[in-house]
Amino acid sequence: MSMMLVSRRHLAKSMVGVAGGTIRLFSSATTTACSVTGAAAAAKQSTRMGVPTWTKSGAVYWVQMDCGARSAGTVALGGKADYEEEKKQHAADHGSKPSVDNGSGNKDEKGIASYWGVGPTKLTKEDGTQWKWTCFRPWETYKADVSIDLNKHHVPTTFLDKMAYWTVKSLRWPTDLFFQRRYGCRAMMLETVAAVPGMVGGMLLHCKSLRRFEHSGGWIKALLEEAENERMHLMTFMEVAKPKWYERALVVTVQGVFFNAYLLGYLLSPKFAHRMVGYLEEEAIHSYTEFLKELDKGNIENVPAPAIAIDYWQLPPNSTLRDVVTVVRADEAHHRDVNHFASDIHYHGRQLKESPAPIGYH
To answer: Is 128 among the domain residues?
Structure first.
């Protein structure tokens, strides 16, 4: 056993060679050299060696700490105990601090090199504080237009319009029965459904664009923007209302049924599908209006707005849940307009690509 450990140490040490200010990392798959000389070496003041990083697969990734090497190799080891001893020995030999896993899979090392050259970007807010969200970037935030007309309604006249209208109305009854006045959970459930149509429509238009070698008029982007915006609503309300296990199970069931039903409906009649979403958004406006009434009556606590909502909608730091519901309702009104508009385009016998999409319509 001791001979095996010695041989493994020898193998690990042989992977890292230092000669004339040049640090080389070797592996059976990749060889990478990174030179630190002259002004670069002076600027860095000190160059730390690559250190092994444990992975669940039992491999060791050798990474360059400071010289910016973009390649990493793997060496198979017999077990984590051997790796820990190797790591301590390497730290003793080279005076470097071994990496420590904080339990979340992240290491405390700075400047870990990526084999693919893809690393996390560090962004800051206008006040200089670090941007902590990875699901959206500062340039994707916006101020919601809360002055939009909330009372617009498309009166159903054709058979497809009436079918879309009563389909949505029939879905409201079981929702009212299940959630009643629990508007936080109701909003969360609503967003898990509302985020589906934009993704389905965008996906189908994307495939159509590829098949026919044609542009979409921006509608792919517009519908995917809608889906992402609805998903951000869900991420926000997740901070306000924690779903119970049976509500999570209900989400899985409803999403599975609705996704396939809407996919089939869009394939058969896009004008019906968009009209139905337009009516669905009208119901969402009604639900959020009732939510605001309950907040104003004091039946629901007007807690501080979640941090993710403040950053996403550029809200003031002292914003509350009422402010969040107000901007979400405005978003739903914009989605209502976009989908009724898309349905009208089809009713006039035209394709969506023939009318420029309302990209960025918030």
So the answer is: no
Residue that has been written with the tokens 């071994």 in this structure:
98
The answer, yes or no, to whether residue 48 has pLDDT greater than 80, is no
pLDDT value of position 84: 56
Residues in CB range of 222: below 8 A, 6 or more apart? 338, 357, 358, 359, 361
CATH of the domain at 214: 1.20.1260.140
Q: Point out the domain boundary residue: 38, 69, 94.
A: 94
CA dist., res. 184 & res. 291, Å (int): 8
pTM for this predicted structure: 0.68
Domain assignment of residue 288, given as a range: 140-354
Angle at 198 between CA 195 and CA 201, to 5 degrees: 140
Indicate if the pLDDT at residue 318 is higher than 90. yes
Give the C-alpha distances (Å, rounded to integers) separating 197 from 121, 163, 265, 355. Answer: 31, 17, 10, 20
For residue 296, the model assigns a pLDDT of 93
Question: For the chain, what is the total number of helices (H) and then of strands (E)?
Answer: 10, 6
pLDDT score of 234:
92
